[in-house]
């Protein structure tokens, strides 16, 4: 998943037809959020000592990353606390919203999702407040962290088995970064998409050699 999100950050920086300014976190970030959550609930100031989290949010930790203050939203990997299931989340600053894209909406119900993502819903606003990013929300006038509005979206095509959740995370991210201006077939061929992703990761493995102002080819973000 980290390799795929590295690829998505490349697209956000260098890709064509990218509608939004975006960046991502990685799998370590979501694990760290869950790890510090019990301590955070006792003392929110623990975030001030978590320089590794702050480095991700300021764009200093991950290749091709951007500071959160400079983007429209952040794509995050989430594994909830109550299910072994990868989900994509999108943190939007101006609306102070965390949208969670659940690819197993029929079996993993919204109320269970809300339970499973509690660490993110609690910690992320405090992290945003610590960095001053909350001020991008025009309705934000508080000294303390404002609670995130959570939206659970299961309207996109859903997986049909119990092991393709990671593929759907990548699929959703590629779809959303172009503002939905591409189609996702309702009968999505996950096996074919896996092969396409492997080929693209291999092809662009030497992207460091590219100049920043040299765009990646359009095929790098083809979904169908």
Structure, explained:
GO terms for molecular function: cysteine-type peptidase activity. It comes from Olea europaea subsp. europaea. Residues 1-176 form the Ubiquitin-like protease family profile domain. InterPro entries: Papain-like_cys_pep_sf, Peptidase_C48_C. It is a single chain. By secondary structure, this protein is α/β, with parallel strands linked by helices. It has 7 helices and 5 strands. The protein has a 5-stranded mixed beta sheet, with helices on both faces. β3 (87-92) and β4 (97-101) form a beta hairpin. The longest helix has 16 residues, at 27-42. It is globular and about 45 Å long.
Question: What's the structural blueprint in terms of helices and strands?
Answer:
Blueprint: H1 2-14, E1 22-24, H2 27-42, H3 51-57, E2 73-78, E3 87-92, E4 97-101, H4 110-116, H5 118-131, E5 149-153, H6 165-177, H7 190-203
Parallel strand pairs: 1-2, 4-5
Antiparallel strand pairs: 2-3, 3-4
Biggest sheet: strands side by side, in what order? 1-2-3-4-5
Number of domains: 1
What structural class should be given to the helix and strand makeup?
Answer: alpha/beta
Q: What integer is the average pLDDT?
A: 82
CATH class: Alpha Beta
Overall 3D shape: globular
Say which CATH homologous superfamily is assigned.
Adenoviral Proteinase, Chain A
Rg, alpha carbons: 17 Å
Q: Number of helical segments?
A: 7
Sequence stretches where pLDDT stays below 50 over 5 or more residues = 208-224
Q: What is the level-2 CATH architecture name?
A: 3-Layer(aba) Sandwich
| Biggest β-sheet strands, sense, barrel | 5 strands, mixed
Oligomer: single chain
Instruction: Determine the CATH topology.
Output: Adenoviral Proteinase, Chain
